[in-house]
Amino acid sequence: MIKLVNISKEYRNGVTALYDINMEIQKGEFVFLVGSSGAGKSTLIKLLLKEEGITRGRMYLDGADITRVPNRRIPYIRRKVGVVFQDFRLLPNKTVYENVAFAMEIIGARPREIRRRVPLILSMVDLSRKASSFPDQLSGGEQQRVSIARSIVNNPPVLIADEPTGNLDPDTADEIMKVLVDINNRGTTIVMATHARDIVNKMKKRVIALEDGRLVRDEEKGGYSIEIPNI
Amino acid sequence: MWRNRGMGIASITSISAVLMILGVVLILVLSINNAVLDTKLKFDEIEVFLVDDLPNQSMDRIEEAVKEHPGVLSIIFRSKEQALEIMKEEWADEAYLLDGLETNPLPDSYIIKVNDIEYADGLVNDVKTLDGVEEVKYYKDVIDKLLIFAGYIQFGGILIIGILVFISVFIISNTIKITVSSRRREINIMKYVGATNGYIRGPFIMEGIFLGIIGALISIVIVYFGYQYFYKSMNEKLYDLFTFYLVDPKLIFTDLAIMFGTIGAGIGALGSLVSLKRFLNV
Fold this sequence. Notes:
Chain A has 231 residues and is α/β, with parallel strands linked by helices. Chain A is built from 7 helices and 10 strands. Chain A folds into 2 domains: 1-80 and 194-223, P-loop containing nucleotide triphosphate hydrolases (Rossmann fold); 90-155, no CATH class.
């Protein structure tokens, strides 16, 4: 689904954020992207979202080479990659329903399709009762679920979650993880960048670790860090 | 849209100013062109003044030579006496001044009419060299001067308009920038969800065009009624002074309205695009 071949990223100010990254993520996988701040996680996500250009290497999404695409094509790539952020990024003057419907309106979905699909997605993230609430009337966890609903309403094959639990308490974080796993079980490939050691350790999913811009570990059913096994 | 009312008003004012100056320049140029056309029609004749007491043979020779020249419509002999009569008519009230003359100072002349003023230059040069011709007069000089004047006005107008368009685009882009930053969050989300640039730009460009059209409406009203007033009060006076008519306001209203609307909307749209460029290239 996602394939990176010898990807390097050098910013215009001369800082090299990524060195020679290789990875391949299969359709339906759930992958944790870990590493300390400044390790290159954010840069990698920016590359996947086509927010930053690639200096060297090649990147493929769903079989298509998206290393270099003209600006006008970028929106169509983003429609294949849903994204959830730590700070939710909801529109405060729109209701939960409208926030989710907004994403469909933007890509020109028919009103009937929107009326059918938005309630479906809201029930998936267990927010049907809050459809007409405004974001500031919701808890953090609920806001993040709205954000997740918005990111998957257009059915992207890939969902990128950039520290989705970063602002949430552990119980609420678990709740969000359940939603993500649920989405993953329906076939969506998920890449989640996180600092949440407990979550990574508990989930036993594939872990890709970055350190100083290099890929240092790619482990099936890995933990947050390489641990010396307890005797 | 009206959250930044001050900037909105500044934008509309600047567009109105551009278009008003455009209108003035346009009317000036049109009027001068009108005057040139008038002059061409009125002065398609060449006066050939003859030396005094020219023998008939010489006069015949001149007449022959002129008739052979291409583009000549007619050649009429005007004696010095006839010339004086015409002058008296033209001077009308002041004609009594001419009665004081003891001898007629005017020369005999030929009045040559040409098909097209284009032939005049060649004809004048030829006729000048003929024996017995004292002086040749025609009005190309006047027309040339008018055309040069029109050229200056056009050039100056374009320069001023260019500068003002630039300023207007700048002011509009700042106005739109304020709206854009107040909706930055929304634009950001739109981008991540995969909205095309066109979809994001649409409303802002509409706002720019809206400002432009309002500016155009204001300026067309001012220019049209202002000019109509000027036309009514000045047209006859100008004709008396310079023997030409201004362009009738009614004739140019539609063209002016279309032109103003297009340019106003164009400036508005351009201003929006300039301010959006920075936000969208992510």
